[in-house]
Design a protein that fits this description.
Number of strands: 2
Distance between the termini: 80 Å
Oligomer: single chain
Number of domains: 2
Shape: rod-shaped
Helix content: 55-70%
Largest sheet: 2 strands, antiparallel
Radius of gyration: 40 Å
Strand content: 5-15%
Structural class: mainly alpha
Number of helices: 5
C-alpha cells in the first residue's frame, strides 16, 4: 500500500509538470484521499487479522491442554465451545483477507485507469508539442531573372526598399536569397538582387 501512495506522488508530479486541467487535479486529490482512507482501513484490517491469529493460537493451545487433561471427558462441552469459537475466528480471518484483497484490487484498478489517462495525456501533449515545434518550411520559386548583382544591406533598408531602389521585385529578391521572413533582413547581409 505504501508503494501505491508513492506511485500516487509520482503521478501527481507528472500531472503538475504537464499542466493538466483543474478537473484532473481534483480527481487526483480525491484519489489521494481514497488511497489514504484505504491505507488506514488496510492497517486496521492487518491489526484485526493479527489479533485473530493470536487468539486462534491461544485457543489451539487451550484446546490441546484440555484434550490432554484427565478430565477431558468431563470438559467435552468446553472443547466443543472452543472448537466453535475457532471456526468463527477462522471464518472472520478469511473474510478479513477477502476484504483486504478486494480493496487492493480496487486500488490497483484505479491506478490502471489513471495510468491510461496519463498516457493519453502524454500522447496529446507530445503531439501538440510536435505540431507547435515543426513549422512548415517556406517554399521558394526559381522563376526570377538570373542576372543581377549583390547588394550589402545597410541600416534602415528593407527588402521592399532595396527592390524599389534597383527596379527589381520583392518576390524575386526573396526567392533568389531564400528569405524565410522578409522583416528579418539584418544590416550587413549580402543579397542577390535579380535584374531584367
Amino acid at each position: 500500500m505504501d508503494k501505491n501512495i508513492a506511485l500516487y506522488g509520482v503521478l501527481f508530479l507528472f500531472l503538475s509538470v504537464f499542466g493538466f486541467g483543474q478537473s484532473e487535479r481534483i480527481m487526483m486529490a480525491n484519489l489521494k484521499q481514497d488511497l489514504e482512507l484505504i491505507n488506514r482501513e488496510v492497517k486496521g484490517l492487518r491489526s484485526e487479522v493479527e489479533l485473530l491469529r493470536r487468539e486462534n493460537a491461544q485457543l489451539r493451545v487451550a484446546l490441546e491442554q484440555v484434550s490432554q487433561s484427565p478430565k477431558a471427558n468431563q470438559e467435552t462441552g468446553l472443547v466443543l465451545e472452543i472448537q466453535n469459537r475457532m471456526q468463527v475466528l477462522e471464518l472472520a480471518l478469511k473474510q478479513s483477507e477477502r476484504a483486504r484483497e478486494s480493496m487492493q484490487d480496487g486500488v490497483n484498478q484505479k491506478f490502471r485507469q489513471i495510468i491510461e489517462q496519463m498516457n493519453l495525456g502524454f500522447e496529446q501533449v507530445t503531439s501538440q508539442n510536435k505540431q507547435k515545434n515543426v513549422p512548415n518550411p517556406p517554399s521558394f520559386s526559381t522563376d526570377y531573372p538570373k542576372n543581377g548583382f549583390v547588394h550589402k544591406v545597410e541600416k534602415g533598408e528593407t527588402v521592399s526598399s532595396i527592390a524599389q531602389k534597383y527596379q527589381s521585385k520583392v518576390s524575386w529578391i526573396i526567392d533568389a536569397n531564400q528569405i524565410g521572413d522578409p522583416t528579418k533582413v539584418f544590416v550587413g547581409r549580402e543579397l542577390f538582387v535579380p535584374q531584367k
